[in-house]
Design brief:
2 domains; 15 strands; seven-stranded mixed beta sheet; alpha/beta; single chain; Quinone Oxidoreductase, Chain A, domain 1; Rossmann fold
Length: about 325
């Protein structure tokens, strides 16, 4: 089968087509014929060598990709979910080595798969799951009560936007930080208060929440610059590497979405929220899989509102 991978770390141009053996689903697994695959920052981290320690000892090519949408074309024995050949699904891929979403076919545990949201295109279906699941995990890590105040940085980004939408659905008061040009979109997500990131953000937050916010989802990775906005005994969710010690009884929750890649109940719940209209699907651009380098160049530029998606051509089912 065809996949897009890399044999050496570097810039976008290290991505190239590779041929891999067609995977066979084992017990409790399904094989998905991929129609679309999301392009996430984690993919760029794999590509540029930021995750090299984790891949040490594995033989390339390495295949990026954690978000897929496609059709089940084979099943293994002992399925733990009502899935069948022909079902249209979305799934999250705990990618490692040659196992990744930038592939014509990928094998997944049934716990990582849920039906494709009704009325969503393939590209839309591949754009949301990893980011929404990351946001959901970040919110659940803090377990704030309804009415508590949550600050979300990078609130117009893929994870930040879902954090705002999910937090509002949870009954939290949300203060959102983003670019002024994104105010309308962020307020559309339900944010109660908006702060332009070019303002003196810390003071503006404390003006809105004297004493500090109860929780922080720091998708913009402002780290030490934003921790003064959190009250004593508050909580912070961080999405990447940070070893900060804010003190004042503040708890820091490092978020690793891979640890939740088989949380089928939560994955299914997110799909239902998409179907109900409570979560927005945002595609920032699409590229044929062969143009993965171009997609990564756009990703590296930043400023995306939504996800770039790679598409794989539809082919007849394998016999």
């Amino acid at each position: 089968m065809k996949a897009i991978g890399l044999t050496t770390y570097g810039g976008p141009d290290v991505l190239h087509p590779v041929e891999l053996d067609l995977p066979t689903p084992g017990p409790g697994e399904v094989r998905v014929k991929v129609r679309a695959a999301g392009v996430n920052p984690a993919d760029a981290m794999l590509r540029d060598g930021s995750l090299a320690d984790w891949y040490q000892g594995l033989e390339p090519p390495f295949i990026p990709g954690m978000d897929v949408a496609g059709t089940i074309d084979a099943t293994g024995p002992d399925l733990t979910a009502p899935l069948a050949v022909g079902d249209e699904v979305v799934g999250i891929v705990d990618n490692r080595g040659r196992h990744g979403g930038y592939s014509e076919y990928v094998v997944l545990p049934t716990a990582s798969v849920t039906p494709k949201p009704r009325h969503a295109t393939w590209e839309e279906a591949a754009s949301f799951l990893m980011n929404a699941l990351t946001a959901r995990v970040a919110l659940d890590a803090r377990d704030l009560p309804a009415g508590a105040t949550l600050l979300v940085t990078g609130a117009a980004g893929a994870v930040g936007g879902y954090a705002v939408q999910l937090a509002c659905a949870d009954g939290l008061r949300v203060i959102a930080v983003a670019s002024r040009q994104d105010e309308s979109a962020v307020r559309g997500f339900g944010a109660h208060e908006f702060i332009d990131r070019d303002e003196v953000v810390t003071q503006r937050v404390l003006d809105l929440a004297p004493g500090g916010v109860d929780g922080l989802v720091d998708t913009a990775m402002l780290h030490d610059a934003i921790t003064p906005t959190v009250r004593d005994g508050g909580q912070i969710a961080v999405l990447r590497f940070w070893n900060g010690t804010p003190g004042r009884g503040i708890t820091v929750h490092p978020i690793n979405v891979r640890n939740h890649a088989t949380d089928r109940q939560t994955i299914t719940g997110l799909r239902k929220l998409v179907e109900s209209g409570a979560l927005a699907l945002r595609v920032a651009g699409t590229f044929p899989a062969d143009q993965a380098p171009q997609a990564h160049r756009q990703l590296d530029k930043g400023g995306l509102r939504g996800r770039i998606v790679l598409t794989f051509p539809h082919q007849a089912d394998r016999s």
